[in-house]
Amino acid sequence: MKTQPRIALIKGDGIGIDVTDAAIRVVDAALEAVGSARPDYFEIRAGATCYAETGADIEPGGEERAGEGDAIFLGAIGLPSIRHADGTEISPHLRLRDRYDLYAGVRPVKAYPNAPQRLADPRAREIDMVILRESTEGLFYSAAVHGRAKVVGDEAVYDTLRISRGVTERLHRFAFRLALKRKARGRPGRLTCVDKANVFASLAFFRKIFDEIRPEFPDVDVAHSYVDAQALDLIRKPWEADVLVTENMFGDILSDLAGGLVGGMGMAACGEIGDEIGLFQPAHGSAPDIMGQDKANPLAAILSGALMLDYLGEKLDAPACSRASAMIEAAIEVGFAENRLRPMEFGGDMGTRAVTEELLRQLARRDAAA
Ligand code: ATP
After folding, report:
1. Residue 257 burial (CB < 10 Å; 0-12/13-18/19+)?
2. Cα–Cα distance between 233 and 236 in angstroms, integer?
3. Which residues are near ligand 1 (CB < 6 Å)?
4. What is the pLDDT of residues 17-40, one digit of tens each?
5. What is the mean pLDDT of residues 228-232?
């Protein structure tokens, strides 16, 4: 077993820097608590500040180096005040997604006690799902950055929604394996294919491939839903959702909707996983309105760190990493339940440093008790 993972660290801009520092401290403490070495981090400079200072949005050779570790951890990239000449924001991380074929966008959505819940129904406390968003094609195949839209003068614009067999087979297999993994951890292990197969040939193909792969995983309970009905159900009965697999644009919208049910941007973790490497980052941006003020909630970044450890546990066959991941999640759960985690984002009195210190205290206690 390889014991010391190598992590490419891209802190980026704004609160990305503070929340990355917080996540790394917590990841290191959890690994220490399970008797494992801290990862070997190597930093890569990228983002809007890098662009303003050097003229390049990522340091020379940075894109290649990012792929040299076992995983990439990213804080947040972009500042509205620093843009390319055409007005678009600085976004080298989008190239990493393409370069490393990070097709599986993992967005966990979980309710924590005493954190904001937008639904009055008490069952909203049980929300615990993962939205798996395909991240390299779908309607984003036509994203402006790729320049693939067909523009007919000033009269019409055509975007393309691409569903390919290769990507979709890998995505669905990833989804089935994720459902099985959650089942082994006491969740229902139910996988829902979310599409619009009744209207679009591309999404009928997405569903067809799902149904072809299904017999490989007889222990996974499956369902199908149309994206409009799924949006309704995410408000009516989100506690019934377990793993949802869907096209890029649908996943983009549904994961924000679901994230809104359980708090705010400061809780939204994200993994973007390919066959070779995974990139982990909080789903929020650089939040320039609160940067440098110790107000950012670091929990999305810390939960992304836990997701990264879980990924490394499997990838490197390192059960200690998986245990450290579970330990971070448990510390957050207990911290909220005992009202010892009170992020400012939710009207509490704890800034970035205070939330981080509280988690470090809890992990040290567990370490001592172990
Ligand atoms: P991007 O497009 O880069 O994702 P965005 O414009 O959607 O960024 P964010 O940077 O994610 O915006 O922030 C949106 C708002 O949410 C910010 O104004 C900020 O106040 C709040 N916010 C985001 N992340 C956090 C956080 N970790 N803690 C507290 N508040 C946050």
Report:
1. middle
2. 5
3. 15, 78, 265-266, 284-287, 289-290, 296-297, 300, 345
4. 999 999 999 999 999 999 999 999
5. 98
Q: How far is the CA of 82 from the centre of ligand 1 (A)?
A: 16
pLDDT at position 3 over 70: no
Q: Strands across the sheet with 104-110, in order? A: 40-43, 6-12, 71-76, 278-282, 269-273, 104-110, 128-134, 243-246, 190-195, 221-226
Pick the closest to residue 281 from 267, 266, 300, 256 (CA basis).
300
User: If you measure from the C-alpha of residue 277 to the centroid of ligand 1, how many angstroms do you get, rounded to a whole number?
Assistant: 26
Q: Which residues of 205-238 are buried (b: 16+ CB within 10 A; e: fewer)?
A: bbbebbeebeeebeebebeebbbeebbebbeeeb
Q: Whose CA is closest to 206, among 256, 134, 271, 254? A: 134
Neighbour count for residue 366 (Cβ, 10 Å): 17
| Test site for ligand 1: of 79, 265, 344, 349, most ligand atoms within 8 A of the Cβ | 265
- Rounded distance, CA 292 to CA 43, Å? 20
Domains and CATH numbers, the chain: 1-103+268-370 (3.40.718.10), 117-261 (3.40.718.10)
Taking phi over 0 as left and psi of -120 to 50 as alpha, with beta for the rest, 186 belongs to: left
